[in-house]
Design goal:
The chain is 78% helix and 5% strand. The protein is mainly alpha-helical. Among the domains are: 214 residues, PAS domain (Beta-Lactamase); 204 residues, Helix Hairpins.
Length: 603
Amino acid sequence: MANEVQQKGKEPKVAFVHSLAFKFTALIFVIVLAIISVLETTSSMANVSALEDVYHNYTQDVAEAAATSVDAMMEGRANALSGGLDGPETENNSISFLINNPDGYRQEMFDTFNETLGGITLKGVDGSYAYMVSADGTMVYHPTVDKIGNPVENDAVKNLVSQLQSGKTPEEIGSGSVVYMFKGAKKYAGYAFTAGGNMVIVTGDYDVVMAPIRQMQKISLLIASICIVVALVLLYIVIKLMLRPIHDVGEIITKTADLDFRKTANGDKLAKRKDEIGLMAKAVSQMRRNLRGIINRLMDTSGLIGNDMADLEASSSDVNNKCTDNSATTEELAATMQEAAATVEHINGNIQDMQTEAQKINELAKNGEKFSEEVMGRAEQLHRTTEESTDSTRHIYENVKVKADSALEGAKAVDKINELTNSIMEISDQTSLLALNASIEAARAGEAGRGFAVVAGEIGNLAKQTTEAVANINSIVGDVIDAVRNMSDCLNETNSFIGDTVLTDYENFAKVSEQYQQDADAFKDSMVQIREGVGSLDSQINEVTGSIGGISESVTDSANAISDIAGKTSDIVNGTGTTSEKVDECRECVSDLEGIVKEFRLQ
């Protein structure tokens, strides 16, 4: 940066053509030149117009004077001839001779009119002359004799002739002045009519007429140029003096650009001015004060930055060491969290297996509850059947006992055997049915009805034997007495068996069925409690599963976060290395800043 600063001690020079004085002078010169050009053009146009008006009147007046001279000459000639003709008639008479014989009268016409018109010119206009044209356009007089008798050549006079021939009178046309072109040259012409109706024309070159004006323009232009040069020199000197304070302000700005902020000799003087330069000097002075303050702050800040860099380097080193330790710790923690996540996944699998088994137990409990309800129904049915069988057996027992007593009393009567046989057959049928029902209920009762099944079997066998006996009654009538006696013993035994054994077994079987019903009811309650417990266990397992899932997710997130922390810690470690590099760069920048600050000169 120091190399980019302009070399000190060398004041920059501004070329003359690039200086403000030259530019202001040139600008004013252009403006003045434009004004003078406009004024000169306007003045010239006004002078030309005024001169044209003067010469219009002047040529007309000269032409009228020439026409009056011709009229006077013609009057004198007419009087001298004493021919009875007046001046106009004498004039037209002479013109008619010329028209009829141009060659014969050309010189005579020249001599006649040359005395009057030959000396007429426009004063100050070299080459001006007068000539005369007839009403039909024939040249009556011209300084050049050869043109006399020939038709007029310029268009302005031809126009006047055309007007006369169209019937206008000279009085209607009147005297006047015209500017016309003849053979490439601009001409002035004043014309007037004679008493004979012919035209006297006085003409001269336009450029010769305007020559004084052009000469005057050249002189005025030369004078104006000399005045402009003198004025420009004076103006340049004045502007140079006016711009001197700006030059001084420029020197102060140049010193500022050279980083020289020492107090200047004329800075305060410039700042006290009341014009725009004073305002600019005040602004530059304020800028230099502000820059001096900034430079002082930069110097202070450079020292503070240097101290901060040292502290930052020490902090970065400490952070680097701690981050290195933290990185190793977080890596170990991440590995531990990953193992914990695996363990949680295994526990989660076991809990899912427990949940599956609990669901199976719940299904079994539901089936056991349904089965217990069926067993309770069967036990209740068995209990009712047992009570009915007990009542029936007791009734049969009473009937059998009564009938047995009666049979024993009537055993001696053979004729009552058939009735007894029928009664025995009925009892046998009922006993068989009872034995069959008892066997079925005993089979349904299972283990609890095994003893009752034995009794039912015996009863069945007894009924069978009774049936066989009844079948053989008719064939063994002879043995009735013996059989009656034996049957009497048998009936006694049977009654004893029914009274002592069967009825007792039925009572016991009824108690067993009641106990069986109570056990089935207790089993149902147990199944309900098991199902409710399994349901509660399933809910708790679900909660545990959700908690284990949340723990698994938390562990996984924690593992990921710890891994991320480990990565970021590694990045921080790397970043601290970069920070150290940046600290070195900042130290170099501080050195550069100190070098730059030294470039400024404050005292």
